[in-house]
# Entry
Amino acid sequence: MDLLLATRNPNKTREFHELLGQAFDVIDLSSFLEIAIPEETGRTFEENATLKAIAASKKLPNLVIADDSGLEVDALGGAPGIFSARYAGENANSKENISKLLHELRAQNIATEKRSARFRCVIALAQDGKVLGVFEGLVEGKIVEPPRGSGGFGYDPIFEPKGFDQTFAEMTPESKNKISHRGQAIATLRDALREID
# Structure
């Protein structure tokens, strides 16, 4: 089954490839430079994912998936949340975002054991401008310092999932995919796609 992922982020596309498996051919918007990815103006992950999926599905006949995901840190009132990718500024990289997050926690003297957090992922599936379904996954854990590991991307080096002593960045992609927020959301998406097929 062919799926269009409404992103130009190669890391995200690769992860979707790995998680969906051989039965799905995932392409992203890198091949369609004329299609603009709408600004994430929603107030929730679901609104942003839906916005992106609908926009791309109006331009191309494919089944379109779009996700919005991020890190929610309890001690920071759920921040960075929907602003995870641009927490330290519009063009911030992962290192800058991590640095800002750790700085905020230190500035508020948040003890290590009080640094509970979760990664949340919401995927919207759309075709012809209509949403066919929304799928969510989340994984609880905590923020660790200093960052550890060189795998993954984004906040992976500072997120240690509950019940593990490795950060996402220290895990193999296979281990991370088994428990990750995106892995969970994609598992429910895959079930729904089988119904469509």
The longest strand covers residues 130-143.
